[in-house]
Each structure stands twice: as C-alpha cells, then as structure tokens.
Write a structure and sequence with these properties.
alpha/beta; single chain
Length: about 260
C-alpha cells in the first residue's frame, strides 16, 4: 500500500520525525535516528553559534542522508524568527523550516500572533513553513490560509512528557485541516504517539522521550513501531465506542435450543 506523507512536495514513508537536541552524544543520536527509521530530523539554529558542535552535528546528519528541518527555537518575535530562518537557509541549504516563537522561558508556549506574522512573511520568501503552535483550531486554520505546508500543534508543553493533554482540540484540528497535522511536543511514551496516529494525525515529532530514555536506540525503535501501529489502526477504521456491552458472539439462539 502506498501510504506516503507529502509535505512541501517531499514524500516521506516514515511518519515519525525526530528532534536532535538533548542526546548525550552524536553517536547516541545517530543510533537513535537509524533505529527510528525517521526521514526528517530537526536541527536548532541556536546551535549554529557553537561552531564545532554544529559542524559535527551536520556531518553526522549528512552521513545519515536524512532531510533536515531547521527550527527557530529561541526566537521571541517574528523579526527574530525571520532572521533565524534566513540564516538557516544558508547554513542548512534547505527551505524547510520549523517555525518556533516562544517568548515565555518557563512554559515555552508558542506566541500565536508573532507566529502568524512570521509565517505569512516566510511563505512569501519561499520557505516551506511548518509552524509549532498551540492546539488551537482557529490559529491552525489561519496558518493554513497564509500558506504553511503543515501545522504542528502541541500535545502538551515542550519536554513535559505529559502526552496528548490537548487531545480534544487536536481532533478538531485534524478534522478541519487541509494540510498535514504533525503533533509536536509533550509526547512522552510510545502509546502517546500511537494515540496521536489513531486519531488521525499525519505524523508526530518526538525528542525528549527518546533522548532522555536510558536506551535511546531501543526507545526510538519502540516509537517507530507505535507510530506504524497507530497509523495502521487509523487507516483500517477503528470501531466506534459504545456505552453498553455488546456480545461479540450472540448466544440467544444457542439458549433457545436448550
């Protein structure tokens, strides 16, 4: 079955995207990426300033032949995000961009006003924009209308591992969206990723839950299987919930024969 995910004209077989922060070393990160089967990984622009570390990160990712999704993490305004994006296009040689603007250092909540403003400008500049945003159906539609290639609503605060706290709103976003929906942030367990796929998300992005595991390589493999299982369940058509019991094998005719 051809079940590719298309974003910005690129086709992806894996629906598990990975963040590259928080890993203990580049070899550990490399093993986790390989184990996950992911074809799209994020790279933070703020690490560009760290010279050698950035060079090592880029050379490692180039060897893996994965697609890069630079992000603007650390930007507090639309203006800062646009500056980061232009730098990213030069350094990473890609128009793909995860747009992140979060001025609040405690909860890292995305700023919807600045995100929308930056997205509109970046689309005009030719970027393939994947904005990280609240699980807000209204702002997701506004972002889609200005031409973003996908939307990336949060499941819970970044790095919290709380799972799909915003599930009810994610379901509305998925129902209404004409662009791929990638659930980002808060996914702490493989079961969270499976649930996101079961409710119809097109992909999930995971970082902390894998990088913070005792064995990141094995955890990446677990997430891979969970995403595949969730997707398979979704496209197979999940049965509806019922408030009353319903016997899987009706037995009344059998009783009538007694």
């Amino acid at each position: 079955m051809n079940d590719q995910l298309i974003i910005g004209g690129r086709a992806f077989t894996s629906r598990l995207f990975l963040g590259t922060g928080k890993f203990g070393s580049n070899p550990i990160m490399k093993a986790a990426i390989l184990s996950s089967g992911s074809e799209l990984v994020t790279a933070a622009l703020k690490r560009v300033e760290k010279g050698l570390e950035q060079e090592n990160l880029l050379s490692t990712l180039e060897l893996l032949k994965v697609n890069l999704l630079p992000n603007t993490s650390g930007a507090r305004t639309a203006e800062e995000a646009i500056q980061c994006a232009l730098l990213a296009r030069e350094v990473f040689e890609t128009d793909f961009l995860k747009l992140e603007i979060h001025p609040d250092p405690k909860y890292l909540m995305p700023d919807p006003v600045e995100t929308l403003k930056a997205a509109e400008e970046l689309v005009k500049l030719g970027f393939t924009v994947l904005p990280y945003i609240h699980a807000d159906p209204v702002i997701c539609k506004r972002l889609e209308d200005v031409g973003t290639a996908a939307v990336m609503p949060l499941g819970a605060p970044i790095g919290s591992n709380q799972g799909l706290v915003s599930r009810k709103f994610l379901e509305i976003i998925i129902e209404q969206s004409r662009v791929p929906v990638v659930v980002d942030a808060g996914i702490g367990r493989p079961s969270d990723a499976a649930l996101a796929m079961e409710i119809g998300a097109d992909a999930v992005l995971v970082n902390t839950a894998i990088a913070g595991a005792i064995n990141p390589e094995k955890m990446a493999s677990a997430f891979k299987k969970a995403v595949e299982a969730g997707r398979e369940a979704y496209i197979s058509g999940l049965d509806t919930l019922r408030s009353h019991a319903e016997a899987s094998s009706p037995f009344t005719e059998f009783l009538d024969l007694l």
